[in-house]
Structures are given as C-alpha cells and as structure tokens.
Amino acid sequence: MTDGGEVKTVSGRGIEAAASDVDARVENKISALAPEQLEIVRRGAEIIKSGGLVAFPTETVYGLGANALDAEAVRRIYETKGRPSDNPLILHVSSIEMTEGLVELNWRARMLMEKFWPGPLSIVLPAKEVIPSRTRGGLPTAAVRMPDAAVALALIKFSNLPIAAPSANISGRPSPTDAETVRRDVGDKIPLVIDGGETRFGVESTVIDMTGEHAVLLRPGGLAKEEIEAELGEEVLLPQDQTIIKRSPGTRYRHYAPNVTLILAAPDEIPADAENWAWMGISEPAGNPAKKIKFRDDAEYARELFRAMRALEKSGVSAIYAEIPEERGIGRALKDRLVRAAGG
Ligand code: AMP
Ligand code: MG
Prior knowledge:
Elements: E1 2-3, E2 6-7, H1 15-31, H2 35-49, E3 54-57, E4 62-67, H3 71-81, E5 90-92, H4 96-100, H5 107-116, E6 121-126, E7 141-145, H6 150-159, E8 163-164, H7 179-186, E9 192-193, E10 206-209, E11 216-219, H8 225-232, H9 241-247, E12 261-265, E13 277-281, E14 291-294, H10 298-314, E15 319-323, H11 331-341
Parallel strand pairs: 3-9, 5-7, 6-10, 12-15, 13-14, 13-15
Antiparallel strand pairs: 1-2, 3-4, 4-8, 5-8, 6-7, 10-11
Helix pairs in contact: 1-5, 1-6, 2-6
The structure holds adenosine monophosphate and magnesium ion (MG).
Residues 87-90, 124, 136, 139, 141-143, 166-167, 204, 207, 218-219, 247-251 line the site of adenosine monophosphate.
C-alpha cells in the first residue's frame, strides 16, 4: 500500500503481515466457540443470507443485523427499530479484505484497522457503489467496523456478507446489553436472537471520519480518542455541532432515554426538596436516595449504564440523578450518552 509513493509500515512491519495478524485474531476467537453456539450462528447466517434479521451480541451492545448489501433487508432494520431513514448504519466485517470491497481505504484508516480491529472503532470512508444508498442513509460515505466478539465475527464470516447492524432496541430507547432486553424490545418481530451473555463495553463504538485530511470524532464510544491519537500521532478533531449533524445524522436524535426524568448532577448537587429519587454514579451522593447504584469506575459505569437506566425506570422512582463523568477515556462516551439520555 503506497500513498504519495511512500511505503508505509505498521510497527516496523509490512502492512500485509499486520493484516494477517487481524485474520489470525478473528480465527482464534471463532475457534473458541462451542459446537452448540456454532450451530446457532450457522442458522443465523442462513437467515442473513435469505434477507432476514438476526439480533446478535457484539462487545459493545447487541446489534440488529441484516445483509448490508440488500436494500430490502436493510429496510426491515429501519422498520423494526422505528429508526429515521436518514440515520446511516454501520457495516460489520470479519476481515480487512471484506472492507476493501466496500469502501475506499487510505493508509491511515488501514493503520487504525490493523491496530484496533477487532474492536469498538467504526471508520467512515468513501463508499463503493455496492453499498445501497439506504444502508448509508443517502450519504456518499459508509462506516465500517470489525466487532470483537466471537459470535458476531462467526455470523459475518459464515454468511460471507457485511452485516449492517444498529443497536437491537426500539429507536430512542437505551441500547440492549443482554439478550433478555433484546427479546423484550424486538423479540416478537425477528426470527432469531442469539444469546451471548452480557456485553463487555456497554456503550457503542467510537465513530471517526477518515475521509478528510484530519481524523474527526463523530461519536465518542468504546475506544478512547486518546488511544486513536497515540496511534495516528495527531489530534483527532472535534467537529462543531452544526457540521457534526451534517456529517453524522444519527447524532441529531434523542437517544438512549429511559422513561423517567434523568438529571446530570454532582454528588452534592441534589436539591434538598428532591423526593423518591435514585442515584447512579461512582461517588456517594449527599442525601437519601430511594435507590442507589454505585459503580467502581468509569468502565463499570459505562458497561452498566443502559441496564441501570432500565432497572431504575422500572423501580418506580420519580427522577434519576446521574453523576457527570470526566471527559477522558471512556468517560467521554459515558458523558455523551448521559447528556443525550437527559434530553441534551
Ligand atoms: P448506531 O447504529 O445507532 O450505533 O448509530 C450509528 C452511528 O454511526 C450514528 O451516529 C451514525 O450517524 C453514524 N454513521 C454511520 N454511518 C455513517 C456515515 N457514513 N457517516 C457519518 N456517520 C455515520
Ligand atoms: Mg443505537
């Protein structure tokens, strides 16, 4: 791979060697699956190939997947979720070779793929024509990602297709991080929900735009901005609100919201007259919450956030006070989801 005539290497090795490292990581993960799981995944792959929907676990949240190259299958995703049609989907792949058929790669994007895939990083690049406009929400670009979960990788590999998959929840609700929640939201509308236990990250992937001269963060997520910057050797830019809405339509919508008022607060900021309130955070709150969920650190806060919101909304409290995390590492994604859940 050359760019401007200059041969680029990754960590002092050839790019092809690094790409085959990614393939080896994928093979290792798939080979750890039990025969019963493989059987279910094979059934899922048949459904995907015939244009149906399958919910499956990734390391971030559960996805609602369909053949990304089949506009009719993709239409069913939007319909099932009630998702606005201009909110583009991420295409999930199981190899860098598969990615090459979908988008125009550049060497910096490839470097990130080789470093962080499989993992919670979605990369926006110019789309090739094979991707239906509906999958891209009408944009000339597409987001690609390789999930770091054996079931997801096997599902993609066995169907031999890129799988378009947003989170497997009804649009606007908190994302599902276990199979039971998926069944409750969309279980009666789709033929198969693959159970892979609780997800490891609990927040969605980081989305960066690599179509321009500088990397731009479109959505903070499971992979910290700082880690991407260390690999690229340059700052990842934060777009201004106006441009981010144009570049990543999904960020415009209210998201992740529980059915009860959510308020961002510091632990000593709970109003004295608050009644029947819940606390969620890392610190001990002042006052007497009716319910309290405390996390060890930001990673646990992120992993448990959506489940905690759903549990608290069912508990009958009248408001949830959520501690504001610091904007570093996973805290950036956590804060983003909290602000949106609170309604902006
Ligand atoms: P979700 O499927 O709910 O995790 O949302 C996918 C996110 O990726 C949304 O914020 C989309 O706006 C964003 N996204 C997907 N494709 C693109 C693209 N081609 N350009 C910019 N953002 C994208
Ligand atoms: Mg979602």
